[in-house]
Amino acid sequence: xxxxxxxxxxxxxxxxxxxxxxxxxxxxxxxxxxxxxxxxxxxxxxxxxxxxxxxxxxxxxxxxxxxxxxxxxxxxxxxxxxxxxxxxxxxxxxxxxxxxxxxxxxxxxxxxxxxxxxxxxxxxxxxxxxxxxxxxxxxxxxxxxxxxxxxxxxxxxxxxxxxxxxxxxxxxxxxxxxxxxxxxxxxxxxxxxxxxxxxxxxxxxxxxxxxxxxxxxxxxxxxxxxxxxxxxxxxxxxxx
Length: 240
Known about the structure:
Blueprint: H1 9-18, H2 40-52, H3 57-69, H4 72-85, H5 93-101, H6 107-117, E1 130-135, E2 141-148, E3 153-162, E4 166-177, E5 187-188, E6 191-192, E7 194-196, H7 198-214, H8 221-225, E8 233-234, E9 237-238
Antiparallel strand pairs: 1-2, 1-7, 2-3, 3-4, 5-6, 8-9
Helix pairs in contact: 3-5, 5-6
């Protein structure tokens, strides 16, 4: 059975080259590979899919997944397309760009996406959220840190660490439906997670990150994707 996935702008352009109903001139805003022309129907489907990101959980998760699998040039092409198409859609920019930002680690592209979201919506990222923590064998902390993205979407940072020794592992679920977020009582590495003040967990993680850096060890990529958490002002107080 052939696996299905949402089309990227490159897919759309390639598909248009095979369609006899293409119109004269490449559609504005979509990259045309080797001079390929874009069928207006494909352009309409692309924009309809973009508009669905504001309300359709499957579309938003698919967008994050597909974008996350792309290489640098394809990501730049996607953002070029959005720069043309997003202003034409009756959808807030945060709905179109937030799934991409959730998986983007390149500083230059992150800045480009944040600017596209707009100054008025720049604070779309983590405000509030909650943490679950358990104590595993050897005293290691295992945590799930859940922070809101937009609408009914959250992201989850899973981590095992010792504040004085560093980070054992970390993984990141960039976009999850809020109703599917982890809750108290779940088991992680054999430890039962309980609700814990999010500020305490982030403070512990800050200490673990510093310990990791003092050892000269590289931080897990998942922590780098969530670096903004450690600069955030949660529960009204700045983190140390």
